[in-house]
Every structure is written in C-alpha cells, then in structure tokens.
Design a protein that fits this description.
The protein is of the alpha+beta class. Helices cover 31% and strands 24% of the residues. The chain is built from six helices and eleven strands. Bound molecules: ligand HQG.
C-alpha cells in the first residue's frame, strides 16, 4: 500500500474509532474497544491492511491487544469525541509541556486559555517539535505555546498520558501559558 492509501484508511479508522462509530455500524465498548474481526468487516479492509496501518502509523494512534475474554480488540489511543472511559491513570507531568496551534487562535487562547473543544481533553506534547507538527495542521502561521504543567499540577490540575504519549488535561487557564516562550513561525 502506498502512503496515500495508508493515510486514507487511517483517517476512516480514526473517524470510526473516535467520532462516529455508528456511521459504519459499530458500537464501541465503554473503554472504546471493538473486536478486530467486527472492525475489519465494518471498515471493509483486510487484516494485512489493518496491521500495516497500525504498525506504520506515525503517531501510534491505535492499540491492538487481546482482551480479557481472549478476543483481539482495537481502539484509538486518544482523540475521541464520543464518550469513552480510557481508564487513564493520573500522572505527574514534566515541568513544561507544549501546545501547537494556529496563530489565528492566539488572541482567544490568551483570553480564555486552552479548552478541549469537541475532544475529551486539551492535548499537549512533551516536545516542541511535536507541538509544531500539531500546529501545522491548522495551516498558516504556527504558534507554539509553553504550558507550565508542573505549576498546574501543584495547583491541583490533573494530567494523564495516553497510550501514544500525548499529555492530556481538562483545560489550561491563561495564567499557566508562558507568554515569553510563545514562538511564532
Ligand atoms: C484550539 C491530532 C481558540 C487548539 C494532533 C486547537 C493532536 C482554541 C483547536 C490531537 C482555544 C482544537 C489534538 C481557545 C484551544 N480559543 N482556539 N480558547 N483553546 N484552541 O484538533 O490539540 O492526528 O481538537 O489550539 O496531533 O490541535 O488526530 O486539538 O488548534 O494530538 O491523532 O482549538 O489531534 O492528532 O483542535 O490536536 P483539536 P489539537 P491526530
């Protein structure tokens, strides 16, 4: 499969596993899992296609594992808008985390902080390069914000880390966003 085909299938998989399972006739379990066999027929893809997408995924968006009932299952590691309980355990964050966004959003973020929008959490990266890649998705100028995560945690904010290393929290008030390290590219 070429890269374009991989991306196309991955986008369909993300849509089904994060946002709109009903559209392809799927029901996720409370933790977001669906049996692999069921998923393959809903997506109309082969097991080989699935393995290629899961293994080749730049961000390890999917987890495939054998469930407690011995049935193989798949879920998205993060990014859901449908209600799922991923069972993430609170973690102590590093002192700073990064968020990449479009410069058009800066004024609003300065005023109200980072909010989760349609997703379950605000997504933060542990390194600025990853944040830059996330911000690039917006098109136009990229802004990289430094979030004082350590201070936030000490002030009682809870952080989680997803199966693919994305840091998650409910919201980031503007006071914890470091204006000096805001980088406009
Ligand atoms: C912005 C991708 C105005 C926020 C990525 C972002 C990530 C505000 C957008 C994952 C705001 C939400 C998540 C405020 C936040 N005013 N704009 N107060 N607060 N925003 O896509 O973090 O490819 O829901 O800056 O790599 O961009 O899907 O979040 O631009 O890990 O696996 O509102 O999605 O991963 O956009 O990206 P999103 P995100 P996948």
């Amino acid at each position: 499969m070429d890269h374009q085909q991989l991306v196309k299938i991955s986008k369909r998989m993300s849509k089904a596993l994060r946002h709109d399972p009903a559209r392809v006739g799927l029901t996720l379990d409370p933790a977001g899992w669906v049996p692999v066999e069921v998923f393959l027929s809903a997506m109309g893809i082969s097991r080989a296609d699935l393995d290629e997408v899961v293994a080749g995924n730049d961000k390890q968006r999917y987890a495939v594992e054998t469930g407690p009932d011995g049935v193989e299952r798949i879920r998205a590691n993060q990014g859901h808008s449908v209600p799922v309980e991923l069972g993430l355990v609170p973690q102590e964050p590093p002192e700073v985390l990064f968020h990449g966004t479009g410069s058009a959003a800066l004024e609003s973020i300065r005023a109200t902080g980072l909010n989760r929008g349609g997703r379950h959490h605000v997504h933060l990266s542990s390194d600025a390069d990853t944040a830059r890649r996330v911000g690039t998705r917006r098109g136009g100028a990229v802004a990289i914000l430094t979030v004082r995560a350590g201070e936030m945690a000490r002030a009682g904010h809870v952080f989680y880390v997803s199966g693919n290393g994305v840091w998650l929290t409910d919201s980031v008030p503007p006071v914890f966003i470091q204006p000096l390290r805001e980088e406009l590219l």
